Amino acid sequence: MTIEGFWTRERDEELKRLYPDMLTREIAEIFGCSIYGIRKRAGLFRLKKSREFVRETARMRSLEPGHGSRKSRFPKGHIPFNRGKRQTEYMSPEMIERVKSTGYRRGHVPHNARPAGYERLDREGYVLIKVEGRRRLVSKHRWIWEQHHGIVPKGWNIQFRDGNRQNCDIDNLYVISRSEQIHNNSIMRYPKEIRKAIRNIHKLNKCIKNHETN
Hints:
By secondary structure, this protein is mostly helical. About 45% of the residues lie in helices and about 10% in strands. It is built from 10 helices and 7 strands. The strands form 3 sheets. A 3-stranded antiparallel beta sheet has the order 3-4-5. The protein has a two-stranded antiparallel sheet with strand order 1-2. The chain has a two-stranded antiparallel sheet with strand order 6-7. β3 (about 120) and β4 form a beta hairpin. It is elongated, with a radius of gyration of 24 Å. The relative contact order is 0.08.
């Protein structure tokens, strides 16, 4: 059934699947339409980029030589002016008294602190949970994975086998490298048979590389 001419139910479902973890430009190439058209359709369904995708994209951009944030960063090895000094060495008595009235006492618990085990959903549909000993809520699926397998390596993400972001059962979770995740998404422009062949080649090259390394 055609929806608004170009868009069909099948294309809408494919858009919902690809949009969270893929560049809008690449999605536009797959569908053969403009970036604006993809963004407009995604806005209709209130689709958002996943937190992992946004984080990784921002990290990659921050590594670019001309990125603005690199100009305002402290250089490597920078030492803060007050490091190792007592408060009286770099603040006047008047300033010390002034900050005392605005600071929290040791052991202070904010009025809006949540108990351990508290859960809520974020805007992208991921479950956040309050863990004992941590001030901020953490991603439940990531926390559960780490309880079973340890810290997630840098550059790797935890995904859901059934696509349900609220199903945080350990058997429903698997780890995948960010590069492989982007690779899997970017080949969606090809027919099913070709996609399967590309994945098999990728696995073969990976096995060869591991064999040569060992």
